[in-house]
Design goal:
There is one protein chain. The protein has 368 residues and is an alpha/beta fold. The strands form four sheets. Strands 1, 4, 5, 6, 9, 10 and 17 form a seven-stranded mixed sheet that branches. Strands 13-12-11-14-15-16 form a six-stranded parallel sheet, sandwiched between helices.
């Protein structure tokens, strides 16, 4: 995952015709043989084309896509800067923040019914390697190996920038019947935020927290940290509008970068010179990793959430002297989407303000 989910496009769900009722079974939606889908023909060359509608295999479901969020990782994929994607030859469809309606079940699927609304994790591990068996399927040792059962939707296999998408039941979570399907795309972002919290042990009550980068991951982190009792919560960013949104979500202090006073000085002042217990680095800036270490108290923890555009400089001696743990993560592991869906249903995560634009599929290039 990248650090933002600032865009979302909404596809028309289309006609809800049925093949005819069968006693005791739900109506079966009519699935066309072809669909419209975005495909990459090269870096920066995306076109909306017709493709065959995929068929679900064992353990898989077919979704009629309702919405698919767009994040920073998608931008890298679009420009051909993301490793292990399929060849950009006009066949690969990205999009990994997928929400849709179940319209067909693969062999052996009993976990879902036709008509269920679901949101999907990007990562489905092979289920065989030691990392997967330990629940760390976003670090699957068979990453990218489809023959071994691994899939990363919209990254190593076709994703959700299409009218239909196939996903595995292991990466799918049922939504409440009244869920807003556009807003449900934010559950994937919330999964990343929750996974970052898991990396520091999951208990934030009474802990001070700094969040660098008020993209969607950072802004959801503010909301979850508030719900879990963290105090104070310090949000650092470059845009006043984002910081204002973060304050409305529960940030106790906001720090605007670029002032005469440095980020480190501002955060230390907000914490009485002590520094914060946990820092979540969601910005991916040239200096943000260095700043994350500098604002964390002795014995604290830093979670590196962001991807970086290029190698960054970090004074590891400072981290060692201060006994600061540097932790990394990727995606939304350990079934965190189940918790994300619950938090949204309880009103603990406000998703609506995080969606800034909506585009139909035909305008996806404009969205990028």
């Amino acid at each position: 995952m990248g650090t933002g989910n600032d865009w979302a496009w909404s596809a028309q769900e289309g006609a809800r015709t049925a093949a005819g009722p069968v006693a005791g079974e739900p109506l079966r939606p009519e699935v066309p043989p072809v669909m419209r889908a975005a495909a990459l023909f090269g870096p920066g060359d995306m076109r909306v084309i017709e493709k065959p509608v995929p068929k679900p295999g064992p353990g898989e479901i077919l979704l009629r896509v309702a919405a698919c969020g767009m994040c920073g990782t998608d931008i890298k994929i679009y420009h051909g800067q993301f490793a292990q994607t399929p060849p950009l030859d006009g066949r690969f469809t990205p999009g990994h923040e997928v929400v849709g309606t179940v319209v067909a079940l693969g062999p052996g699927v009993t976990e879902f019914d036709i008509g269920d609304h679901v949101v999907c994790e990007a990562h489905k591990g092979c289920g065989q390697c030691e990392n997967c068996l330990d629940g760390e399927y976003t670090a699957c040792l068979n990453y990218g190996n489809v023959a071994k059962g691994h899939r990363a939707t919209g990254m190593t296999c076709d994703g959700g920038f299409a009218e239909y998408a196939v996903v595995h039941v292991n990466q799918s979570y049922k939504l409440p019947a009244d869920a807003d399907l556009d807003e449900a795309t934010i559950a994937v972002t919330a999964g990343t935020s929750l996974y970052a919290i898991d990396r520091v042990g999951g208990f934030l009550a009474g802990k001070s927290v700094a969040i660098l980068g008020p993209g969607s991951v950072g802004l959801v982190l503010v909301q979850i940290a508030k719900a879990l009792g963290a105090s104070p919560i310090v949000l650092v960013g470059t845009r006043e509008s984002r910081l204002a949104l973060g304050r409305s979500f529960g940030a106790d202090h906001v720090v605007l970068t670029g002032r005469n006073e440095s980020v480190v000085e501002q955060v230390l002042r907000a914490t009485g010179g002590r520094g914060v217990d946990f820092t979540f680095e969601c910005a991916g800036g040239d200096r943000s990793a260095e700043e994350a270490v500098a604002i964390t108290r002795r014995g604290g923890k830093v979670v590196l959430v962001a991807f970086y555009h290029h190698p960054v400089t970090l004074d590891l001696n400072n981290a060692i002297r201060q006994k600061i743990d540097l932790l990394t993560m990727r995606g939304e592991g350990r079934q965190v989407l189940r918790r994300a869906v619950a938090l949204q249903a309880q009103g603990k995560i406000q998703a609506g303000p995080l969606i800034t634009h909506r585009f139909p599929l035909e305008n996806i290039v404009e969205a990028f």
